[in-house]
Amino acid sequence: MLLSVRNLHARVGDKDILKGIDLELRPGEVHAIMGPNGSGKSTLSQVLAGRQTYQVTQGEVLFEGKDLLALSPEDRAIAGVFLGFQYPVEIPGVGNLHFLRTALNAQRRARGLEELDAMDFLSLAKERMKLVQMDASFLNRSVNEGFSGGEKKRNEVFQMAVLQPRLAILDETDSGLDIDALRIVAGGVNALRSKERGLLVITHYQRLLDYIVPDQVHVMSAGRIVLSGDKELARELESKGYAWVDKLGAPAA
Ligand code: ADP
Ligand code: MG
Ligand code: MG
After folding, report:
1. Within 6 Å (CB) of ligand 1, which residues are found?
2. Ligand 1: which residue has its CA nearest to atom 5?
3. Residue ranges of the ABC transporter domain (predicted)?
């Protein structure tokens, strides 16, 4: 198993957000997490990435059989867990490229590989940019500074193409992409599907899943996964709406 989430509970301050998540993802699989706004999708991704705001109160997460929750966010990234930033912190003056090379070299050091110098990294980056049809000027902009929604998403897939994570978590912005950007982003993601890699695609909308076809779909409501199924579940959800799901997720009286 690539990722095993067992009875995961998490809170912010005194507010319980995740209330017992179970999830098993094998290498090569793509799972979609859907659910209404506020159901805890982003919290789940943040907890997996190790953001400090969220406190895990129960449960466990195994990544390739090891205790993921025991690792710092940096060590999770080095181990191969990737989370693109939904609302990135802007770091003026730090080039996109510099940021990415630092991240890649941290991974390489941990694996006993030689670090890439600026030249070698540049050729790798240029090669990987093709996947999302980015142009070269993109590389030298500050990390997410002044990027449009579509550019941020492309940048996220580009980062993933460079870092080649074992597990990638893609948390969609609710603002949505135009159809061209959606196709490009989905095409990049699909090109990165492989039998070693797992993908967790978090989305409020069904339409992304027309392009990135998941092996399994899970629906969250109020901090729990209340339904799981195959890709048809996403379509059913599209026609029945989230009100249907919220009823399923209502705690027993
Ligand atoms: P989703 O991504 O499904 O829209 P979120 O995980 O963003 O859901 O939010 C789930 C719930 O947790 C919401 O009620 C939200 O207000 C709350 N929440 C998330 N993050 C925080 C935070 N940092 N501080 C306080 N409440 C939060
Ligand atoms: Mg939200
Ligand atoms: Mg969210």
Report:
1. 12, 15, 17, 35, 37-43, 53
2. 40
3. 3-247
CA–centroid distance, residue 40 to ligand 1 (Å): 6
pTM across the whole model:
0.91
Sheet holding 15-25, edge to edge: 15-25, 3-12, 55-63, 66-67
Query: CA-CA distance, 74 to 72, in Å (whole number)?
Result: 5
Which numbered atom of ligand 1 lies nearest the CA of 40? 6
Strand, helix or coil for residue 87: coil
Tell me how far apart the alpha carbons of residues 11 and 32 are, in angstroms, rounded to a whole number: 22
Q: How many domains does the chain have?
A: 1
The span from the CA of 183 to the CA of 208, in Å, is 9
DSSP string, 137-206: GGGGSEETTT--HHHHHHHHHHHHHHH--SEEEEE--TT---HHHHHHHHHHHHHT--TT-EEEEE-S-S
Give, using CA atoms, the residue closest to atom 21 of ligand 1.
Answer: 12
pLDDT in tens, the chain (253 residues): 999 999 999 999 999 999 999 999 999 999 999 998 899 999 999 999 998 899 999 999 999 999 999 999 989 999 999 987 544 455 555 677 888 898 899 999 999 999 999 999 999 999 999 888 887 777 777 665 667 777 778 888 888 999 999 999 998 754 567 787 788 888 988 999 999 999 999 988 788 888 999 999 999 999 999 999 999 998 888 888 888 877 776 555 4
CA of 12 to the centre of ligand 1 (A): 9
Q: What whole-number distance in Å separates Cα of residue 88 and Cα of residue 80?
A: 20
Per the DSSP assignment, residues forming a β-bridge with 66 are 63
User: Residue 90: which domain range?
Assistant: 3-249
